[in-house]
Write a structure and sequence with these properties.
It is a single chain. The chain is mostly helical. Helix content is about 65%, strand content about 0%. A two-stranded antiparallel sheet has the order 1-2. Helix 5 packs antiparallel against helix 8, helix 8 packs antiparallel against helix 9 and helix 9 crosses helix 12. It is globular and about 80 Å long.
Length: about 350
């Protein structure tokens, strides 16, 4: 009599895809960056509004108001806005801001990850590859997010304009419709050059520096690829991005918020470089960094929340197939162990 029992083979530890820990064999979902940015917007929007208010103050024409709106007193500015216009005023233009993040950030984050996966696959991308991916993603993201950005800036700046000059848009869609009807569709793309340039600089300085800082913390300082590393890398990236993009951000804000009847419209219609030269001549070099503190306080939490949420979404996306595969293996193992031994006489 020969008895044969079923043999259960342990799961193979060989990975046919040659994946390394922390890397996936495909790009993360396109929407992760947009979802993370929309979540971060609820945290950063009051700071973004304060930054726009600071950037649209002209030192020569409103000396006393400029002193009051110094970047070091940005929290006092926020208090004054909430006291004079109401707490809800700190979230003026939130719908436009969410629409902007849903277009601009979704495209630039999604394309950056997609391009990075295309050029490097599962290998570690080089600095040149990261630079190329972030530049291409920034150009496309800036173009698609331009109309919502114009409405966003106008709605945030509306509260400090004289009553007769306020636009009083109900929401982002109402703002786009009224701009097309009252000023023409071309106005939605006013400042496209400076906005796209800023989007490129933002994407390059934010995403490339985040990847570089994260790699530095892990490989040089021995940090684990976890929450602390993501926090430190995103905070460092926010500092770099704020400094690099500040001059173009000021130009973009001035161009988008300008009225057609504004005497400064001729100046604001020029090339961003000429605008910056004009600002340096009339207001000093520091005018290029109006609202830097507000911009950093806004971009810091926004960048941190964005990258932390995005890293969690990527982890869930990576763990979900593994969990499903583990459930299948467990089910197969249970089925095999319940099979009775066969006996041959």
């Amino acid at each position: 009599m020969i008895a044969r029992t079923s043999v259960i083979r342990p799961p193979s530890t060989t990975n046919n895809n040659n994946n390394t820990p922390g890397k996936t064999n495909k790009a993360p979902p396109f929407y992760t960056g947009g979802v993370a940015s929309c979540v971060a917007t609820f945290v950063s929007h009051p700071f973004d509004l304060t930054k726009v208010r600071l950037q649209t103050i002209r030192r020569k024409q409103h000396q006393q108001q400029w002193r009051r709106f110094q970047p070091s007193k940005m929290f006092k500015v926020m208090w004054n806005i909430s006291r004079t216009e109401g707490v809800r005023a700190l979230y003026s233009g939130l719908s436009a801001s969410l629409l902007r993040q849903g277009t601009y950030s979704t495209i630039r984050f999604g394309l950056y990850d997609k391009f990075k996966w295309i050029v490097a696959r599962n290998e570690k991308p080089t600095f040149q590859q990261l630079l190329f991916c972030s530049t291409a993603a920034g150009v496309l993201g800036g173009c698609f997010g331009q109309p919502s950005d114009v409405v966003n800036v106008r709605m945030q700046n509306d509260g400090q304009l004289p009553l007769e000059q306020r636009r009083n848009y109900k929401n982002a869609i109402d703002g786009m419709i009224r701009i097309c009807r009252e000023e023409g569709p071309r106005v939605l793309f006013r400042g496209l050059g400076s906005s796209t340039n800023r989007a490129v600089l933002m994407t390059v300085s934010q995403m490339t520096s985040y990847d570089m800082f994260k790699d530095m913390f892990v490989t040089r300082f021995g940090f684990n690829d976890g929450l602390l590393t993501h926090f430190a890398a995103s905070l460092s990236a926010a500092f770099v991005a704020t400094t690099v993009t500040s001059p173009l951000d000021v130009c973009k804000t001035l161009i988008m918020s300008a009225h057609l009847t504004n005497p400064a419209a001729d100046v604001l219609g020029k090339h961003p470089i000429k605008i910056m030269i004009h600002m340096v001549k009339t207001e000093g070099f520091g005018s290029l960094f109006k609202g830097w503190t507000a911009a950093f306080v806004r971009l810091g939490p926004h960048t941190i929340v964005t990258f932390l949420v995005m890293e969690r979404l990527k982890e869930w996306q990576t763990q979900l197939p593994k969990q499903q595969e583990g459930d299948i293996l467990t089910s197969n193992t249970t089925t095999a162990t319940t099979t009775a031994p066969t006996t041959i006489v």
